[in-house]
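Objective 1b: paired records.
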Amino acid sequence: MPELPEVETYRRFLDDIILHQPITAFEVRDAHVLGTDEDTLRQGVVGRQVAATRRIGKNCFLELNDGAVLALHFGMTGDVGAYRDDHDAPRFTRVALHLADGLRVAFIDPRKFGRIRLAASVEAYQKAKKLGPDALDVSADYLKQALGGKKTILKPLLLDQRITAGLGNWIVDEVLFQAKLHPERIANSLTDKEFNALSVAIQLVLQTAIQHEATYRHFPASFLIHAREWDDSATPGSELHKFCPRHPKTLIDKSYVGGRATYVCPRCQVV
C-alpha cells in the first residue's frame, strides 16, 4: 500500500506538472475507482485549474481554482503517471485528466481499491473521513495529549488514522525501533522523555523516506527496515535471519501485535 512517503512523492510529481493548467477532459476508463459519480466529477473538474496540491496522511488533494478539491486515495496499489498519446498510457490507467498543453495525468490502480472523490474542501474531507493531523505535523505535546490517557498498547494507537494520519505498519515498526519503544507498551506509561523520542522518531523516519523517494533499499543501515525480511524456516543465526542494526548479534523478533506483523529488537525495545 502506498504510505505517506510514497503519496508525498506523488504529490510533488503532480505539483510539477499540473498546476495552473486548464483541465480539458476527464477520461474514465474504469468507473470502479470513482467515489463520486462520473457526471459530478466531470462537471466539477473540466474547465478548472489546479491551484495547489496538498496531502494529509495517505490522501493527496488537487485544490481547484473554484475552491473544491479532487481527493485521491491510492488504496493498495495506486500510483500516478503522465503521458501524451493513448498508446503511451500506463498499464492500469483508470482515470486520466487531460490538460490544455496536451499532457494527460493518469490515476493508475491495478487492484482498483483506490478512489477519486470531489470534496468541498480539504478540511471537509478530513472531517468526513475522521482523519487526525498529518503525521509530519504532530508534536510531542500532541502525542502526549492524544495518547497519554489511553490504557491501550502503543502500536494500534499509532496506526489509528483518527489519531495520526499517515503512519502505516512498517513505518510504526521503524518509529518504535528508532524511539527504543516496544509496540506493546501501554500508552499511558510513556514518560515525557519517551513522548519526545517518539515525536523525533516520527520526523526522522518520514523525512528519511521522503528524501529517498520511498526507495527503501537506500535507507540508512541504522534502519530496522533492512531486517524485515524473515523466513520462519531458517536456522537461528543463519543468513536468512536478520539482526538488529545496533546489536549485530541480537536477532530481530517477529510477532503479531493487533493482528499486524511486527518486528522488534528484544534488546532495544523492552516492554
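Objective 1b, second protein:
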Amino acid sequence: MTVTDTYQRPIISLRISITNRCNVNCFYCHHDGILPQKYEMTPDEIHRIAQVARGIGVQKIRLSGGEPLIRDDIVEIVSKISSIGFKDVSITTNGTYLDKYADDLLEAGLNRVNVSLDTLNPETYQFITKKDYLEKAKQGIIRATESDLYPVKLNMVVMKGINHNEIWDMFNFCKETGAILQLIELLKTDNCPDNGFIDDYHYEMNDLEIELADRADKVKTRRFMQDRKKYFVDGGEIEIVKPMDNTQFCKNCTRIRITPEGKLKPCLLRNDNLVDFIEPMRQGKSDEELKKLFLEAIANREPFYDQCH
C-alpha cells in the first residue's frame, strides 16, 4: 500500500542521486539541491535503499546525479534495482555516455531516459556546459531511441537571449529522432528571493503555451506531474515544466529523494530536514527500522511554497 504524507500526497517515486560528479559544468546547475559529496554509495547499498522504498509502496525509481552514467558500475546498479520489480526505472543524463550504455541499460531493465540538452548550436552548447560534447550528446539520444528505451525525453532549459529562439529547432530534432521535448522554465535559486541571474535569463513561456494550445491536435493534462499539459503538435509532443517553487508543483509532488551521501531528502528545495539513511543501514539496522526512517522523512514533507507565499 502506498504511503501518503500529512498533506495526503502519495509517495510513489524515489529519485536517487548516485553521484555528484559530472563531466559537464552547466552554468545554471543547482546540483539537485544536494550538498558537497564525500563518498558514493555502492550498488548493493543503492539496491537495499530501493528494496526498502518498494516496501512502503514506491513504484518508480529515477537515477540522477551529477551525471549517473559517469559511474562505471551503472549497468550493475540498474540491474539490481530492476530486479526488485518497480513499475518504472529511469535515468536522467546529459546523454554524452548514452551511445556507449543505451543497449546495456535496456537489457539491464532500464525503461526510459531523460536527456538534458539545451541547444543544437555548438557554440551555445560550449557556453552553457564549458565542454565540446554536443555531437556525443546528440548521438546518445539517437542511440537511446534506436535501442527501444521509451520514451526518450529531451529536457531543454529555456533561457532568454541564449537558446529561446531554438525551441522549434529542438522540437523538429525531437520529431526526427522520436524523442519528446520538455521545455523547462529556469528554476529560481537561493530559495525564495529573486536574483539577477533569473532577471537576466528567465524566459516567460505563457505566450508559447497559448500558441501550443492553438496549434495542438490534442492536449493531455498529467495529473501527478503538477497538472502540466502535454501538447501533441504536428506529429510531435511538447511539455512545459514550470519552476518547482510553486503551489501547483508542491500540491502534486509525489517524489522523495536520496542524496549521493545517502540522506533522505523530503523536498528538492530544502536542506534543513534531511534524514540520514546510509549510516543506520551500515550499522546493520533491519528493514523495519530503515522503513521508519523513510516514514520519518515523509512526515517531514511540508510544501515549500508555504514558506514563500
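The chain has a mean pLDDT of 90. The longest helix spans residues 43-55.
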